[in-house]
Structure prediction request, 140 residues.
Amino acid sequence: MATTITALELFEILVGMNGAFILQNPHGSMELRGTDFYLRHTNDWITLYHRAAKSPESRSHFHLKWRTLQWVRVDEAEGQTPQLSFFMTPEPVDEPVLIWYFPSFYDWAHHKAEIPDNIALFEGFVERYGKTLQLVEPTP
Prediction:
């Protein structure tokens, strides 16, 4: 059974975890990563901005029509950092439109040494929210 959560609640959690957002379509992808993001939202849009920017629009940022997202799944592969895959359908049927990578499990500068704090962050997320999430409308 999927955990129900609003997109806004989930994005607040993810921004605080300092992972990487990857927006993709059949033509390409865009990656946004950093540890200094903050979130703004309207009835239709979520926007991630860098705190260190002189003005919100002066650095790369991310606009997302959050109401288009319906389903989120944790995807894991051996030897890779897990990701959240976001879908526009109530069940995953096509490729995800958005991916969020958890903070890296590996320190690549030290021969892929594991980073226990990041692994624990992932395990805590899965314990709290599970591996499938259904995005629901906020309560008025």
